[in-house]
Each structure stands twice: as structure tokens, then as C-alpha cells.
Inverse folding.
């Protein structure tokens, strides 16, 4: 590239950057102007300054300052500020937690068409947080947000239709649930992808949606994918893949999922998809047993009893087996009878 061309490209970039900065209003490059305009009472500047304090964008996070500036803009009718101020009151960020105040600010933003506020107001009505519990109102606000493309609202609307609330006039409708789950899933919503995959609702391979959710770190999807690859089911039409199963169990186990921890321990115990390794089995059984998993308590108890991968300890073994037996694990009850 010649010097003339380099200068031309550089000049074009500066022009483009100038247009971008002018078009986006306030940003971290012109915070001095933003603060000055906020102090003059300009709502967009007050909103932006409050949002920067809210997020810690270009300055230290300070929810107290965020509440101050967001309230200034919210009281002037700025929908974005009303939404964030509602979040502050809902979570107790920079102000005392007050769900009624949160719902009030969500309503103001929702009535201006803010989709995120509509979703959050729907959630308040579903949970009875700051407003009376009202599934009909929840559906109404979720639908408004969902129709604007809000994936959280789409998934929430799917949940309501999936379970139904006939005593409140919301009839269970699986087709509508699937419709909204799919809308959210196609936007990358991991929860909706998990729901489609785990319930085999999509008419497609369950593993496809589970994989999409699992790859985003959805822990329950990772666990279900472990089951998916280790189970035989005619509707899934695929062979067992123990290595894939172990891979996903491990992903979920590392996030603290007790079922995955138990199954990963069992895989090491049985040599399913990994070489047998008593010490690793003990490690993962212990993780799940400490969370109260009966099968893991039984597995760990038997390792203590046999001294397999761990120093034998009959007292610990019997304690764990009793805990497992109390949860109805038949093998633990049999093992206890043999100990006597």
C-alpha cells in the first residue's frame, strides 16, 4: 500500500469514527460533556451517566450514584432509566430493596413499549413481587415483550403455557409453549433450547437443542446430554457414546451438578467411557454425597467399606450407607444388613 493510500484509509477511518461518535450521543470518550449536560437536566445525559455508574462502564461501579442519576432521567419519562431504576429497587442496588417501587418503574417503562420492562413486569405479576400475583397479567406483559422479540419473555411465555394455570384462566397449551420456546431458542436462549431438547418437544433430535444449550454452559443441558449419550431410546435413533457422555457429565459436574457428579463417579467406578479409577470415583462420589445424593452416599460408603481408592473406614462407611438407606437406596440397606 502506498503512503497516499495509507493516508486515505486513515482519514476515512477518522471520519467514520467521528460519525459513529456523533451518532451514538454520549459515550466513554465524552464523559465530561455527558456529566455537564446531566447537571443541566438533560434526561439522555442523566440516563447515560446513571447507566455508566450502574454498569461500571468508564468509571467505578457505584449503584448509589446510578440511582441518583437514573431517577433524574426516569422522572422526566426516560424509559431506559425507568427500567434500570426498577432493577435497582428490585435487587436493592444503591437503594433499599422495594419490589413495589420496582414494579411501579417497570410499569412506567413498559407502558412506553420497553420490551425488557414488559418482561420484568410480567415476571413481577407471575411471582407476586410488588404487585398482586396474576398469571393473566403476566401472560399479557410477557406476550407484549415476546412479540417485540424479547427471548426471556418468549421462554417465560412458553413456561406458562407448558404448565398452565387453569384456576386463573390460563389453559395448558403445549403447541403454544413449543411455539414460544422455539422463538427464543432460535435467538440463542439456552433455557429455551434446553426445554425443547429435554422434553423432546421440537420434532427434531433432542440432542441438537441440548447441545446448543450445553455449549452455552447451561448446566442442566450438559447433564441431560450426558444421559442422552449414555441411554438407549428408539426416538433418539443414535448409538450410545460413553466418551461423549463422560465429557458432558464432567462439564456439569464441574459446575456443581450433583447428579452429574454421581454419574461421573459411577463412570470411573465401572470404566464407562474412561479407564476405571477408584480414586477419581471416590472424588466425584464425595462431591455428590456432600450435597445429599443417595446413590453417591452408597457408592462412597462402599469404597470406605472395601478400602478401594481410599483408606478403609467402617464407621464412615456405615454412616454413609445409613444416609443412603434413609433415602430409599435398596443396595445400601442390603449392605448394612451384611455389615451386622
Amino acid at each position: 500500500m502506498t503512503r497516499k493510500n495509507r493516508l486515505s484509509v486513515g482519514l476515512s477511518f477518522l471520519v467514520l469514527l467521528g460519525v459513529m461518535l456523533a451518532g451514538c450521543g454520549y459515550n466513554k470518550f465524552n464523559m465530561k460533556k455527558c456529566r455537564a449536560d446531566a447537571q443541566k437536566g438533560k434526561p439522555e445525559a442523566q440516563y447515560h451517566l446513571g447507566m455508566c455508574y450502574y454498569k461500571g462502564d468508564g468509571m467505578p461501579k457505584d449503584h448509589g450514584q446510578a440511582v441518583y442519576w437514573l431517577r433524574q432521567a426516569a422522572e422526566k419519562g426516560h424509559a431506559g432509566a425507568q427500567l434500570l431504576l426498577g432493577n435497582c429497587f428490585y435487587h436493592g442496588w444503591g437503594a433499599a430493596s422495594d419490589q413495589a417501587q420496582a414494579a411501579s418503574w417497570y410499569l412506567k417503562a413498559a407502558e412506553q413499549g420497553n420490551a425488557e420492562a414488559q418482561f420484568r413486569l410480567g415476571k413481577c405479576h407471575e411471582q407476586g413481587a410488588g404487585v398482586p400475583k396474576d398469571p393473566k397479567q403476566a401472560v399479557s406483559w410477557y406476550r407484549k415483550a415476546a412479540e417485540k422479540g424479547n427471548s426471556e419473555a418468549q421462554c417465560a411465555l412458553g413456561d406458562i403455557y407448558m404448565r398452565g394455570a387453569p384456576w386463573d384462566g390460563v389453559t395448558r397449551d403445549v403447541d403454544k409453549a413449543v411455539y414460544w420456546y422455539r422463538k427464543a431458542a432460535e435467538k440463542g436462549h439456552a433455557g429455551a433450547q434446553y426445554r425443547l431438547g429435554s422434553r423432546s418437544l421440537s420434532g427434531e433430535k433432542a440432542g441438537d437443542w441440548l447441545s446448543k444449550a450445553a455449549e452455552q454452559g447451561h448446566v442442566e443441558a450438559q447433564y441431560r446430554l450426558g444421559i442422552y449419550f449414555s441411554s438407549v431410546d428408539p426416538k433418539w435413533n443414535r448409538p450410545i457414546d460413553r466418551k461423549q457422555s463422560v465429557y458432558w457429565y464432567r462439564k456439569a459436574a464441574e459446575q456443581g451438578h450433583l447428579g452429574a457428579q454421581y454419574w461421573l463417579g459411577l463412570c470411573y467406578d465401572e470404566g464407562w467411557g474412561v479407564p476405571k479409577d477408584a480414586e477419581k470415583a471416590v472424588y466425584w462420589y464425595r462431591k455428590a454425597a456432600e450435597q445429599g445424593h443417595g446413590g453417591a452416599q452408597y457408592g462412597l460408603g462402599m469404597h470406605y467399606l472395601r478400602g478401594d481408592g481410599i483408606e478403609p473406614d467402617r464407621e464412615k462407611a456405615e454412616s454413609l450407607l445409613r444416609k443412603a438407606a434413609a433415602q430409599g437406596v435398596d443396595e445400601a440397606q442390603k449392605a448394612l444388613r451384611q455389615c451386622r
In short: The CA atoms of residues 125 and 131 lie 6 Å apart. The chain has four domains: 28-112, 113-187, 205-255, 258-340.
